[in-house]
Amino acid sequence: MNKYEEIIKVNSGLIYMIMNKYFKGYDKDDLYQVGVIGVIKAYNNYKNDHNTKFSTYAFKYIYGEMYNYINNIKSIKVSNEYISLYKKICTARNMLSQKLMKEPSVNELAMFLEVNPLIIDNVIKAMNKVDSLEKIISNDGKDLSLLDTIRDNRDFYNIDYMLLNDEISKLESPYKELIYLRYFEDKTQSEVADILGMNQVEVSRSERKTLKKIKDVYQNVV
Q: Can you give the pTM of this predicted structure?
């Protein structure tokens, strides 16, 4: 057994843990092989004098390799299917809005485009989710998205979307609601304060605290 076989064997549990927690629904054999590449890259870059355990150090490499693999698959599917259909939905929405004098429902869009309503609904939700993460908001006079807010200049191996959504889902009330209202529903701090029964100072302080918590998770992982 060579050095790579040994390190892969010892860390196979870590590969499966990352695969099962973050990448459910994808081919496990392919993901495992991609995870092995991550372990090898981590091993080649790891220095014994590091204070970090190898498993902790290897996490970002394994996750990054898997994410890039999935992203490459998704980019083809999204480009050819979701984005194309979403453009048609937007066009249909504009046309029907003028014709019906109101925002068309999912069923009305589905009938117009002759597409299953469930598909229409899934595409809209998927694209809105991405748009929400990239939505520009005002933050102390600067235009930033939620991803911009928690990023720094380090290399995060493109784990943004999945890890971000995972961490937001773990937040307790009212912090989870605050982030969703601010970044997914585009509410102002004053509007959030009214909805959550807080004052604007409390909202501002809680928002900064929550974003710092998410950013700390990023830094600990990567």
A: 0.39
